[in-house]
Amino acid sequence: MSAQPILVADDVAASYPGARVPAVASLTFEVRAGDQVAVLGPNGGGKSTLFRLLTGELNVGGGRLDLPARRCAFVPQTERSRLDFPVSALDVALMGAVSRMAWWRRPGRADRKLARASLKRVGLGDRMDASFGNLSGGQRQRVLVARALVQDAPIVLLDEPFRGLDAASTELLEVVLRELAAEGRGVLTATHDLEQARGADLVLCLNRVQVAFGPPQTTLRREVIERTYGGNLVELGPDVTGVLTDGHPGGAS
């Protein structure tokens, strides 16, 4: 791992326009090249707000946030993507090139080559010309990952990327994320799944303020999970705790 962090948050806070209280506060953490970070927290706990800060959609209201010049690539939940545009999987992947170009430029031959290679990398080399809206949910999610690969940012943000995926798509995506970290990118994944969080290098627990940050072995203690999720905990059996998400138990511990 790099000795120098590629992302530094020092007591960062942020509010939405017109809000009386911060949406997030007390964010203090570092991400180094090669780190896989699970961002854990309830709905409304600040995971999306953090990602908006990191992509520049929301201004820092306090503290210090140091980011790479090329910012971050963002992979949204596929269910929030528009499906009615007549674009192919290749078209969507190629959109990743736009973020690193001057406004007057258009993607060229090298960008199209990178987009094709990125689709092959996520297992969609045979679906490049397929309509994005006609792909399965897992395939659309992988196209959005390919778009982030084309963006070629040092930090990749993923908003619950495994939600609704079948086992095959989940396994393939996990491999791609490990490869990105091995290449020296920082990978931050918002999740409700405690088991997925345990597989990360670091865990950032949020509930409007930073609850904890560190390796999963020391961070995912019961008291931390209780502070992170509050009443959204359910006993599933002896020594087993689950997180309630939208009324259903999430990952078990």
Automatic annotation (TrEMBL):
SMART domains: AAA. PANTHER family: IRON TRANSPORT SYSTEM ATP-BINDING PROTEIN HI_0361-RELATED, METAL TRANSPORT SYSTEM ATP-BINDING PROTEIN TM_0124-RELATED. It holds the Pfam family ABC_tran. The keyword Ubl conjugation does not apply. InterPro entries: AAA+_ATPase, ABC_transporter-like_ATP-bd, ABC_transporter-like_CS, Metal_Ion_Import_ABC, P-loop_NTPase. Keywords: ATP-binding, Nucleotide-binding, Transport. This is Unannotated protein. The lineage of its organism: unclassified sequences, metagenomes, ecological metagenomes. PROSITE patterns: ABC_TRANSPORTER_1, ABC_TRANSPORTER_2. Residues 7-233 form the ABC transporter domain. The keyword Cell division does not apply.
